[in-house]
Design a protein that fits this description.
The complex is a heterodimer of chains A (426) and B (359).
Chain A: H1 2-23, E1 32-36, H2 41-49, E2 55-59, E3 62-65, E4 69-72, E5 75-81, E6 87-90, E7 99-104, E8 107-117, E9 122-127, E10 130-140, E11 153-156, E12 159-164, E13 167-169, E14 174-179, E15 182-187, E16 190-192, E17 196-201, E18 204-209, E19 212-214, E20 218-223, E21 233-238, E22 241-243, E23 269-274, E24 279-282, E25 285-287, E26 292-297, E27 321-324, E28 327-329, H3 342-357, E29 369-371, H4 377-380, E30 390-393, E31 400-402
Parallel strand pairs in A: 1-2, 2-5, 3-6, 4-7, 5-8, 6-8, 7-9, 8-10, 9-11, 10-12, 10-13, 11-14, 12-15, 13-16, 14-17, 15-18, 16-19, 17-20, 18-21, 19-22, 20-23, 21-24, 22-25, 23-26, 24-27, 25-28, 26-29, 27-30, 29-31
Chain B: H1 2-30, E1 52-53, E2 60-61, E3 65-68, E4 80-86, E5 93-94, E6 108-116, E7 122-132, E8 139-146, E9 153-155, E10 160-167, E11 173-180, H2 183-190, E12 191-192, E13 195-196, H3 203-206, H4 217-223, E14 227-228, H5 250-262, H6 318-323, H7 342-354
Classes of the chains: A mainly beta (426), B alpha+beta (359).
Chain lengths: 426, 359
């Protein structure tokens, strides 16, 4: 009896020790510990270039100016600041390269507790790395316009990525962008005044929860694009607050013309799912995104040749989409920038056409959930009403519109309709 | 007691033996390459290696070190490049059909960068070394920066910006901040699938006859015992010479140019793998070649345009736009180019214009 109590106590002690070790990035686990202060930029750049495996670098409070920084082909690295409001890395004098901080081929990379700002390209790009943690990082551009770089936090071709407690602002593409990655978590982050707050692209097994995406052109995107290294899908999106994303689209690439990418996102978009499959969106607050709360679109909506690009890594038709138990509300009118934007104009037209076809709607807003209506029937020549398992369980009225984008070019045939019954979850 | 004694002397013996062995190897290889068997450390100064005899800047190689050229080279700000290979004594390179040739352990590839100044003098800037470490069989990179006096180049890892005034081949004058890459920049271009590899010395890019010479470069190597396993020359792939309009079509020259200048990153497993734009000479998939392919992560680098290449319409092609820029975030390649290569831009422009327009 006494023995078992001792064992239990010992066990508790061990658990206690273990959990205390895992709560915060712990510099003690690194064999080389370096520390720098502002003014030592040249030494820091050199330290990054000559890193050995298992090194932590502490950047003490203050402002640092860098051209760019890079880490390549080492393992178990921690870049630690003293907090986003204390350690600030400024890349505005960048003269070469696509990004502020570039990380390539690293197993075990953590960056924690600082602000990085104003690079010419992306702010933090992490390429082909495994076990990546980006935490307590603010990645911002002072100006939210097309002179800002592309992505603020940009892991791509990675495995096991955690992005948490971060803030991004001013990206001319996505604030947080996870691309061609397997297994990613984005949580407790904020993103504002980006073209896209957060984007999960060709990324599988992702969870996005407890975030706030607001005042972007589009709050949150899940895209699959053709011709890339892997297919995305299996994405869970819950407990997020995605609100007031009505900002103008300032992407340099094709605000008015491009077929792909975020330049295509209409101002006023809450969530956009493009050509991606196996997605669950539940228990989010999606408020005052005044063009569309949730858009489900196929690759055909933006690329008439999408069918030619089908392969194991790409299917243009979204399928297995579950949308339920979200709190959704829209404002009284489209945001002004939507009228100037190509897709925005289509959505404005959709609202008008709908109200023309269904006079009983009495000039209501476009419904919350916009489905482009392009299904796998166009590939199979089938006639099923919901062949791709789109399932919606959202209370309220004016929830859904099938925008019938296949016929949008022929006004007399164009019949968006609000019949949600084929799409009700069973 | 006795046991301890025995063990001790055994230890002493083995240590002495290995030290002697190492010394022996050092002596042997020092004359040749400066690599000691078992581990490799980069030396502090270029002269420490003994690659060149006489005045260092004359780049006059000692016996056993040989010069080579590429049919289509990478553009680096109109830099003059001198390339050499150092092989360990008695060893030869093995022919491979695809990718870089198979170099023996302890090989060193030397690439020297210089420019022509306003007084038409050749001025050394940097020397890059690629070394195949015999210990782990992996290639390693290092940079050496030349001093003002042009007497020595010293190990340099952090990269540098050097203001220079240079002349191109036509005598046109440029002022620029030449970018010496840092060691991670070197790795970015040389890494494929997580492994650092040489880029230039592929059979197909060495398979030509240098101006003023009678015999094909690869055949010369075989004759000197530097290369083994070379099949009949007619069976060896040949990368077109990008400037040779007489022997190669516009398409061939443009694709060779893109291969050399872009495909070390724009290849599966390369640094730009995520873009889906692959510009290897062998690539045949029109999407991967950028034909009406939308950019994936170009951001502002796309310049407001929709497609990497719009066949027939160079002025709407992102690829050309990025080649024709020196702005960070837009300029391609991202590294080691601060001047627009106007001849290269012209070639690619002509090629895109020649492609049949499509809807």
């Amino acid at each position: 009896m006494k023995q078992s109590i001792t064992t239990a106590l010992l066990l508790l002690l061990i658990i206690g020790i273990l959990s205390s070790c895992t709560t915060k990035t712990d510099q003690k686990t690194y064999t080389t510990v370096l520390s720098f202060k502002p003014g030592e930029e040249a030494k820091i750049a050199e330290a990054f270039l000559s890193l050995k495996d298992s090194t932590s670098i502490l950047l003490k409070a203050g402002n640092y100016k860098f051209d760019n920084l890079s880490i390549a082909q080492v393992n178990h690295i921690l870049i630690q600041g003293e907090g986003h409001d204390k350690t600030v890395l400024d890349f505005s004098s960048q003269t070469q390269g696509g990004e502020g901080i570039r990380v390539t081929d690293v197993k075990g990379f953590t960056i924690d507790g600082m602000t990085i700002r104003d690079s010419k390209g992306d702010l933090l790009k992490i390429n082909k790395s495994v076990n990546v943690t980006v935490t307590n990082l603010h990645a911002v551009w002072s100006k939210a316009d097309s002179t800002s770089g592309g992505y603020a936090i940009y892991p791509v071709l990675c495995k096991n990525v955690l992005i948490e407690n971060c803030y991004t602002e001013g990206s001319s593409d996505a604030g947080i962008y996870v691309g061609q990655t397997d297994s990613a978590i984005v949580r407790k982050c904020k993103a504002a005044k980006n073209v896209a707050g957060c984007e999960i692209e060709n990324t599988s097994n992702a969870e996005v929860y407890d975030n706030e995406f607001y005042n972007n052109t589009a709050g949150f995107l899940i895209f699959d694009l053709p011709d890339l290294s892997k297919r995305g899908g299996h994405v869970k999106v819950y407990n997020n607050n995605i609100h007031d994303n009505n900002f103008r689209n300032f992407a340099k690439a094709g605000s008015f013309g491009t077929t792909w990418g975020v330049g295509n996102a209409s101002p006023g978009s809450g969530i956009i799912i493009l050509a991606a499959s196996d997605i669950e969106i539940n228990n989010n607050k999606i408020i005052n995104n005044n063009t569309s709360s949730i858009t489900i679109a196929s690759g055909f909506a933006v690329d008439e040749k999408a069918g030619e690009k089908i392969n194991a890594n790409y299917s243009p038709i979204p399928k297995n989409i579950r949308i339920h138990d979200n709190t959704i509300a829209m404002g009284p009118a489209f945001p002004k920038p939507a009228y100037e934007h190509r897709i925005g104009q289509l959505l404005v037209a959709t609202e008008a056409q709908l109200n023309k076809l269904e006079p009983t709607r009495k000039n209501k807003r476009i419904p919350w959930i916009m489905y482009d209506g392009i299904t796998s029937n166009i590939l199979t020549k089938g006639t099923a009403l919901n062949p791709d398992s789109i399932c919606i369980n959202q209370p309220g009225d004016n929830v859904f519109v099938n925008a019938d984008f296949l016929n949008i070019a022929k006004p007399e045939n164009w019949k968006p309709n609000t019949n949600i019954s084929p799409y009700q979850c069973k | 007691m006795r046991k301890t004694y025995l063990l001790g002397s055994l230890l002493l013996f083995s240590t002495t033996f290995s030290l002697l062995m190492e010394q022996g190897c050092k002596n042997k290889t020092n004359q040749q390459s400066g690599i000691s068997q078992g581990s490799f450390e980069f030396k502090e100064k270029l002269s420490d290696y003994g690659f060149f005899k006489g005045k260092l800047a004359s780049l006059n190689p000692v016996d056993g070190i040989f010069h080579y050229e590429l049919s289509t080279p990478l553009f680096t700000d109109y830099a003059i490049k001198d390339r050499f290979i150092v092989l360990p004594a008695g060893k030869s390179i093995k022919y491979t059909e695809e990718g870089a040739l198979d170099f023996p352990d302890s090989s060193i590839i030397i690439k020297n960068f210089a420019y022509t100044n306003a007084a038409h003098e050749k001025v050394m800037i940097e020397t890059r070394l690629l070394v195949k470490d015999p210990k782990d069989k992996k290639w390693k990179v290092m940079n050496y920066l030349w001093n003002k006096e042009q007497t020595e180049a010293v190990k340099h890892i952090t990269g540098a910006r050097i203001p220079i005034t240079l002349l191109d081949e036509t005598g046109k004058k440029y002022f620029t901040n030449y970018q010496v890459p840092n060691t991670n920049d070197c790795k970015r271009c040389h890494i494929k699938d997580g492994t650092l590899i040489p880029i230039g010395p592929k059979a197909r890019n060495l398979n030509f006859t240098l101006t003023g010479q009678a015999v094909n470069q690869l055949s010369q190597w075989v004759a000197k015992g530097k290369l083994s396993g070379l099949p009949e020359l007619s069976k060896v792939h040949q990368l077109p010479v990008w400037t040779d309009k007489k022997h190669y079509s516009l398409e061939q020259r443009a694709r060779a140019y893109l291969d050399v200048n872009c495909a070390h990153c724009h290849t599966k497993g390369g640094d730009a793998y995520n873009t889906g734009l692959f510009l290897d000479y062998q690539e045949t998939n029109a999407d991967h070649l950028g034909m009406r392919k939308a950019p994936v992560s170009a951001g502002g680098g796309a310049g407001g345009m929709d497609y990497d290449v719009v066949p027939g319409v160079p002025e709407q092609s992102i690829l050309l736009y990025r080649m024709n820029s020196t702005e960070p975030g837009t300029a391609m390649p991202e590294l080691a180019r601060t001047i627009i290569h106007k001849e290269g831009v012209e070639l690619i422009k002509e090629w895109i214009r020649s492609l049949p327009k499509q809807k």
